[in-house]
Amino acid sequence: MNLIEELRWRGMVQDMMPGTEEQLQKEMTTGYVGFDPTADSLHIGNLVPIMLLKHLQRAGHKPLALVGGATGMVGDPSFKAEERKMLDEETLQHNQRCIKAQLEKYLDFDPAKPNAAEMVNNYDWFKNISFLHFIRDVGKHITVNYMMAKDSVKKRIEGDNGMSFTEFSYQLIQGYDYYHLYNEKNCRLQMGGSDQWGNIVTGTEMIRRKGGGEAFAFTCPLVKKADGTKFGKSEKGNIWLDASKTTPYEFYQFWLRCTDEDAEQWIKTFTFLDQNEISSIIAEHNLDKGKYTLQKRLAQEVTAFIHGQQELELAMMTTDFLFGKLSLDALKSLSDVDVKKVMAGVQQATITKAELAAGIDVLTFMTNTQIFPSKGEARKMLQNGGLSINTEKVTAQELVVDSSFLWNDKYILVAKGKKNYVLVTAE
RNA sequence: GGGCAGGUUCCAGAGUGGCCAAAUGGGGCGGACUGUAAAUCCGCUGUCUUUCGACUUCAUAGGUUCGAAUCCUAUCCUGCCCA
């Protein structure tokens, strides 16, 4: 199966330039995707481009990961409602380094291989281009009419917030990236989310007009939840690939909690399982949906890919203790070292033993441990029936928490809502 | 530079002197039901606080008034049209 066929059944092809498939059949092709250095870690929204590069490499082609040091300074306006905040250069550089380090974990950069992945940063070629030079040599080839006709731009022009020249020029910058890579790295393919189509086409157009060359591209549909809401956010915000921002347990939970509908699509998009295997998993899932066969497999595959097998196993174990058959009693029977390990992914809090010995009321307990920022909020949660300690629902705000709540002599397990656990350690 | 229309709580969007912490919808959070799903229903949703109440909000700074998101002045920002 060729790359495009593979991506097609996975539902990962939206738009494609004519001839792309033929080009990929013909020879080993270098293709690239850009990553914005908007934060110091990638998040699961970036997982799609990573998967694209991965598939490209598996199909024998050469992936280029472009970190947008230059484009990040400008900000992509495509389909956005308003201009985003500018990051200072120091932050951008820090972000670029972090992202680079992450990408290295997911692609094969072994230089011995002919299709080894490579990393490039567009800041490297933009830093030496002057403004005059750019508008003369690059801007000359693309008309404003052409640029304004893009849907991605129209939205902003017709919107309420306008669009700065800086943002408007974004597509030229991204377009020039492609032109540059076409010349320097013999890059013939650009991939990206469907929101990038406009920018990508500007690139191929530039290659055609400026150099008379031919370059290809395809885009992947943007991942959304079945209910149309944004993908990749949880209550706590973004789901990051960096374990110190989103623990492997939380990461695993994110995938486990998705709906049946989403899981069916996502297992195609975010795992490398083949078509047969996926259909049999779905079939099995449908026999007893309560077993979470589909979500579990999805969560396992993705967590293992991002965090590795060991972290996955710990995350699964944590899940078993908190939600599964293993109860609090089982957790209590673990050694201290094991408790720490198993609970590592769960939100942590501390309290002093002295405070507990004296006994404190629940609300103060919740604020002192910083589980809640204020008593008012803790009270609200309690009144809503959303608060429990050691798996027992707290019903009275007069409840006094003292040393008798400790298990293994140092832990208290607090839950806010059904899904959010906090392990309190007494010191 | 000129004319016009605007800037309201997470978002959309009401409110044009007291009844406004501010309608309604969405989103978020919590609960019931379930499968840690979906749908549905219920509660909460400025901050702090034991229902009382206190404090800070309606672009910013001043002013009028017993009292202002609402009126006045200046400033900043945005859109549209004209130059």
From TrEMBL:
Entry binding sites for ATP: K233
Keyword ATP-binding: yes
Keyword field contains Metal-binding: no
Binding site for L-tyrosine: Y32, Y170, Q174
Keywords associated with the record: Aminoacyl-tRNA synthetase, ATP-binding, Cytoplasm, Ligase, Nucleotide-binding, Protein biosynthesis, RNA-binding
Catalytic activity field: tRNA(Tyr) + L-tyrosine + ATP = L-tyrosyl-tRNA(Tyr) + AMP + diphosphate + H(+)
Subcellular location: Cytoplasm
Domain of life, source organism: Bacteria
Record-level GO cellular component terms: cytosol
PROSITE patterns: AA_TRNA_LIGASE_I, S4
Catalytic activity, EC: 6.1.1.1
GO molecular-function terms, A-Z: ATP binding; protein homodimerization activity; RNA binding; tyrosine-tRNA ligase activity
A Pfam short name: SYY_C-terminal
GO BP: tyrosyl-tRNA aminoacylation
The protein's assembly and partners: Homodimer.
Family: Belongs to the class-I aminoacyl-tRNA synthetase family. TyrS type 1 subfamily.
Protein name: Tyrosine--tRNA ligase
Source organism: Chitinophaga skermanii
